């Protein structure tokens, strides 16, 4: 399995997470349809928030990153949030 963490902070990040929270069902539908989807978490932090997506393989992670980028551009581009810091890697332990 592969995981990707997208961390948003700075100007517009809190507003972005307001949009994501208000449209959580839409975000869920978008990400659950990624091939090889395993799990997704969206969390707020003091200066914005982060998401973690786990997929069976790198192709799923790559697809999730592109879908998130496209969705934010279309639905929350007006928040002014900068591109996230992206970290990705192989899953060592995944608990459900």
How would you characterize the overall build of this protein?
The protein has 96 residues and is α+β, with helices and mostly antiparallel strands. It has one domain: Alpha-Beta Plaits (2-Layer Sandwich), CATH 3.30.70.100. Helix content is 39%, strand content 32%. The chain is built from three helices and four strands, in the order βααββαβ. The protein has a four-stranded antiparallel beta sheet. A hairpin with a 2-residue loop joins strand 2 (37-45) and strand 3. The mean pLDDT is 96.
Features:
96 residues; 3 helices; Alpha-Beta Plaits; four-stranded antiparallel sheet; single chain
Biggest β-sheet: count, sense, barrel? Answer: 4 strands, antiparallel
Structure summary, number of beta strands: 4
Protein structure class? alpha+beta
Query: Which fold name fills CATH's third level, the topology?
Result: Alpha-Beta Plaits
Mean pLDDT: 96
Classify the beta-strand content into a percent band.
25-35%
Query: Rounded to an integer, what's the Rg over CA atoms?
Result: 13 Å
The CATH architecture comes to 2-Layer Sandwich
Query: What is the helical fraction, as a range of percent?
Result: 25-40%
What is the global morphology? globular
The number of helical runs is 3
Count of structural domains: 1
- Quaternary assembly: single chain
Order of helices and strands: EHHEEHE
How far apart are the termini? 14 Å
CATH classification class: Alpha Beta
Low-confidence stretches: none
């Amino acid at each position: 399995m592969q995981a990707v963490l997208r961390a948003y902070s700075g100007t517009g990040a809190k507003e972005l997470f307001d949009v994501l929270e208000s449209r959580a069902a839409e975000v869920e539908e978008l990400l659950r349809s990624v091939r090889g989807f395993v799990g997704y978490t969206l969390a707020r932090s003091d200066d914005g928030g982060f998401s973690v997506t786990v997929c069976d393989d790198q192709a799923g992670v790559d697809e999730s990153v592109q879908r998130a980028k496209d969705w934010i551009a279309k639905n929350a581009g007006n928040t002014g949030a900068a591109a996230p810091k992206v970290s990705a890697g192989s899953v060592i332990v995944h608990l459900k």
